Amino acid sequence: MLRLLARSMAAGCRLLFKTVRSELIETCAGTSPYDGNRKQRFLYCIWHDNILGPTFCGRSVKMAALTSLHGDGAFVAMALECVGITPIRGSSSRGGAAALREMMDAARDMDITIATDGPRGPRREVKQGIVYLASQTGRPIVPVAIAATRAWHIPGRWTDLLVPKPFSKVWLIAGEPISIPGDLTRDELKSYRDEIQLAMDQWNRRVSELANGSGSQLAVSSRVTDESETTRRAA
Question: Does pLDDT of 73 surpass 90?
Answer without folding.
Answer: no
